[in-house]
Amino acid sequence: MNDSSAQTGRRLLVVLLCFMTITVDGYDLIVYGATVPRLLAEPGWGLDATGVGMIGSWTLAGLMVGLVGAGPLADRIGRRRLIMLGVLWFSVGALFCALAHSPFAFGVARFATGIGLGGVVPSSVALSVEYAPSNRRQLYSALGLTGYAFGGVICALLAIALLESHGWRILYAMGALYVLILPAMYFFLPESASYLVDRGRTDEARALASRYGIDFDQVLQEQQHAHHSHPAAPRVRGLRLMMSPEWRAAVLLFALMAFCMQLVVYGLNVWLPLLMRKSGYPLGSSLQFLLVMQFGAVSGNLFGAWLADRMGSKKVLIPFFLVCGLSLLVLSQKPGYVWLMLGVFGAGLGSIGSSTLSYGYIATYFPASCRASAIGIAQGLGRIGAILGPMVGSWVIGAKLGPQWNFYTFAVPAVLAAVVVAQIRETAPPRVSYADA
């Protein structure tokens, strides 16, 4: 194997480890929605739709805390260290979920689990982009973020196989097994070269760049560009750089985009099985809808990334968001089987698929010295929509307006997301990036 092939293999290993990390987020997204019918029937708990929505929102509040804190923290202590800490935190939280003896204990465990999840996503996305060739950055980001949907597929399959016979606790216990990927991360997951340069560890960064085929001169130039943009504060980075006049308007627009789509994603994933059951489908079929939705998400993520590297993220996300809104309108009409499956597939493509693509959009828009901060803050603020999503679903169900109104409600923010993306300027302010490999 020549040196170029070895470097490509090492970069892809980084993407694989990021993929495995983000899988935990996808698993956690689906596990709660899949277990809601069983939680409602748990003896002695007395949960109703309002309680289920509240616990779902606690989880997402924890995730928002983790995202907002972890993005800037990753720019301070490094991506690698924070990813490993987040995986450990999530695994412990999942174990406590499996052992919970009351709705309150379960909700607290879900909140803690969300904090751990928030710690892994910004750093994983940032590393995927930083170790990618410049003409494949969206693709590398998408490959890593496919773990989001892959985790959902794993959870949906496990729920179909085990939920009826073994109950809901086993699904959370299996989530705790993610701790087993930590040894691989310890030995094979590298730190960001840009972070090392920023911290004065230049020789270590140079060796890392040589091993992975990163253009080290470009890494140095990117750091110099960030510092020269603020001569009065030559070491400005992270949160301060992200909130500077040249970047903060974009951060706010990205946060609003994330708000709209997280409201849709989490609202649907918590309530879709129950909505389908109310529409007359059995539990097994309802779980199959979650599975089809995840396949749509994977397709949207990979195909969308391929298009984004050629056309730009903005030109891909706008039609994808509109596909989501249209698909939800189709689902509201109780269509025939073929249209039903196409609607579920399109909802996954345009909601989860678009949501994961937005991470790559943010990562490639901002410079490395504030990349994790931008991802964490934009997606963290966007998680307010994720907190409201399950609550909105419970309000509509509690109002007894009929399941179709839930689909109407979630179609609106999908269309609004397309409008917001249209307001983001076509290109980011001038900066340098890694050269093609």
From TrEMBL:
It is a multi-pass membrane protein. Keywords: Membrane, Transmembrane, Transmembrane helix. InterPro entries: MFS_dom, MFS_sugar_transport-like, MFS_trans_sf, Sugar_transporter_CS. The chain crosses the membrane at residues 12-32, 52-70, 82-101, 107-127, 139-163, 169-189, 247-268, 288-308, 315-331, 337-362, 374-399, 405-424. It is found in: Membrane. The keyword Disulfide bond does not apply. This is MFS transporter. It comes from Paraburkholderia silviterrae.
